Amino acid sequence: MDKSIIMIYENNLLNTFFYTIIFIIGFIISLLLFSTNEIEKNTFNGEGKFINLVFIGSQNCPVSNNDEELIFQINEIKDLLNEKAKQNDLELFSTGVSTSVNVAESYSYLNEIGNFDQIIVGLGWNNIGIEKYIWDKFQGLPVTPQLLITKIDYEILEGTETGFIENNEIVLKRLSGKDEIHRFYEKFSHKNISLF
Fold it and tell me: Which single residue of 32, 65, 116, 175 could bond 147 by disulfide (Cβ 3.0 to 4.6 Å)?
């Protein structure tokens, strides 16, 4: 066999080996990153009554970002809501919404805030979460950070081919800005607020 063909074959073999190793290392790193992130089980089964804690924030907002006290309070509110929801035969899930355009940065930012059952990122102030919770269905001030506590009744409609789920969602509480979130946390943590 010609030496140039052998060299090409050896180079291709080395390249294939190199890229395979890179792929395996990348795969292992992604497994480690996701396995160290505490992922909560979502108990949503399609029907029932739920409380949804919606966080709206932006990694570009100095108030939404790098504030350990705010992050602590949001997660404490989530834990307290979960307790209250259970006491009232409701289940809690949480939604993280970012107003930033960059999807990867938004995902990383929301992951630093807390563990959400669903996240809505990308398209900045035009994404579907902002559309629903600021501009359209539940109009509010376009500020971050923001928390909404909503109650949702999911009902599976009988006789539909698609298994369509109808939901009635109402806002129980909207907290716009760090100060409102802080005041709510102080009252709620001392059980001075009844939501449902």
Answer: 175
Rounded to 5 degrees, what angle do the CA atoms 146, 141, 58 make? 45
Q: How many alpha carbons fall within 13 Å on the CB side of residue 15?
A: 6
- The helix/strand/coil state of 140 is coil
Those residues whose C-beta lies under 8 Å from the C-beta of residue 110, and which sit 6 or more positions away, are 55, 57, 96, 98, 116, 119, 121
Distance of CA 68 to the CA centre of its chain: 18
- Mean pLDDT within 24-41: 57
| Pairwise pLDDT comparison (168 vs 56), residue with the higher score | 56
* Single pTM value for the model: 0.75
Query: Which of 1.25.40, 2.30.130, 3.40.30, 2.40.10 would CATH assign to domain 48-189?
Result: 3.40.30
The token pair that represents 134 in the structure block: 């600021």
CA distance 22 to 35: 20
Per domain, the residue ranges of the chain are 1-36, 48-189
Do 93 and 52 meet the contact criterion of CB atoms below 8 Å apart?
Answer: yes
- Give me the mean pLDDT over the 176-180 stretch: 94
State which amino acid sits at residue 101: V
Secondary structure class of 139 (helix, strand, coil):
coil
